[in-house]
Design a protein that fits this description.
There is one protein chain. This protein is α/β, with parallel strands linked by helices. The chain is built from 15 helices and nine strands. Strands 5-4-3-6-7-9-8 form a seven-stranded mixed sheet, sandwiched between helices. A two-stranded antiparallel ribbon has the order 1-2. The protein starts with a helix and ends in a 12-residue tail after the last strand.
């Protein structure tokens, strides 16, 4: 066997993945150039070669899960890993025009795709698969409604409050809060399609949706602030400024709820394949990074990890997307479909292996007198 092929096969074997095997997570190779490409390109090459049809597997999430469990992402980095690490150290990748890149390249892909994938509510973040009594809910729609209600209850929303949603998506969280809890509010997004959709969805409600970077909000005032699935785009260099801004928007008795994916280890960048094809200029905060950035600005009242629920959410999204491909426009071609399958499969594996977490962190500017009983 050629040394390069032998090296790659050895790495895969260490993860209990066989080339040409018959188990769901085994790899079927269609191009003999794959080993050299993987050895040179690391995780970027693994994803792009899948997009190019060089290999297949019956279960992407199981295969990637085994690679992560064996630590192959750390043992066999490629050139892209080294390049991206250098860029993250030298540049503020989330500043200025770069801040809008993820909106233009990911969230503006098309509302048709997201409507098909996300279910009845266009909520592009982890569902909470439990009801108020702690019992498991059985559907994606129920899990998303439970998550929105959980956010509102944690924030103690009451009629007449003014609420800010940083990274408001398609407006579902503010719509839920306005209809169920009687609040008014502002949603900020960097996606034109999301802004237009949210305005139409929430017509007649006391809500405003802006195409606006969060940094432009300084000088305003809100009773409560929430941010669901946006902090992953802020970037380490901007964490302190982000928390300083949010603190400036709240009164002394205000509350801030941060809902974010988090990493189990401190890093400065995301995976090269994710950065290039899914979420440009993104990175996941660690618990240490988040705590250090908010220290002195907020009291952390509660830190809730329900990352295992993201695996269930992603499985539901995958099932919805697979069922919808034939109904979607031709621009979602076969290479796009393979990219999207890889994205969802990798994400499932990362949460299943507990490499990534889902946190809801409830913060107050000065500490709630007597403490707070936080709903679950």
């Amino acid at each position: 066997m050629h040394p390069i092929r032998e090296r790659v096969h050895g790495l895969l074997t260490s993860a209990d993945v066989r080339v040409g095997g018959d188990r769901p997570w085994d790899m079927q190779v269609h191009d003999s150039r794959l080993p050299a490409r993987l050895l040179a390109g690391g995780s970027l090459a693994l994803g792009e070669s899948y997009m190019d049809g060089w290999w297949d597997t019956s279960s992407l999430d199981q295969l990637i899960g085994r690679l992560l469990a064996a630590g192959l992402d750390r043992r066999a980095p490629g050139w892209a890993d080294l390049r991206d690490a250098a860029a993250a150290r030298l540049l503020n990748l989330q500043l200025g025009r770069r801040a809008y890149a993820v909106g233009e390249r990911h969230y503006d892909l098309g509302n048709d795709l997201y409507r098909a994938m996300l279910g009845r509510r266009l909520v592009y973040s982890c569902g909470y698969w439990h009801d108020r009594d702690g019992r498991r809910v059985e559907s994606l729609d129920a899990a998303q409604e439970a998550k929105l209600d959980l956010v509102c209850r944690k924030l103690g929303l009451r009629p007449g409050m003014r609420v800010l949603d940083i990274g408001c998506g398609w407006g579902e969280a503010l719509k839920f809060a306005a209809e169920r809890y009687g609040v008014s509010g502002v949603g900020a997004t960097i996606s034109r399609q999301q802004q237009a959709f949210a305005e139409a969805l929430c017509e007649g409600l006391p809500l405003e949706f802006r195409l606006q970077d969060y940094r432009a909000l300084r000088g305003e005032r809100f009773d409560r602030v929430l941010s669901i699935g946006m902090f992953e785009h802020v970037g380490l260099r901007n964490y302190r400024g982000y928390f300083d801004l949010v603190r400036s928007l709240l009164p002394a008795d205000g509350l801030f709820l941060l809902h974010s994916i988090g990493g189990s280890a401190s890093r400065r960048r995301t995976d090269p394949w994710i950065a290039r094809h899914i979420f440009p200029n993104s990175m996941l905060p660690s618990a240490r990074q988040l705590a250090e950035a908010s220290e002195g600005l907020f009291v952390i009242e509660d830190w809730h990890n329900f990352g295992a629920d993201y695996d269930l959410t992603l499985q539901a999204w995958r099932d919805n997307a697979e069922a919808a491909w034939e109904r979607l426009p031709a621009r979602y071609d076969e290479r796009f479909r393979r990219m999207w399958r890889y994205y969802l499969g990798c994400s499932m594996a990362a949460f299943r292996m507990r490499r990534t977490q889902l946190w809801q962190v409830l913060m107050s500017p000065q500490g709630v007198p007597g403490g707070i009983v936080v709903p679950r």
